Amino acid sequence: MVAIYCRAHHGRASPPCPECAELIDYALARLDRCPLGETKPTCAHCAIHCYKPSMRERVRAVMRYAGPRMIWRHPILALGHLFDGWRKP
Question: Does pTM surpass 0.90?
Answer without folding.
Answer: no
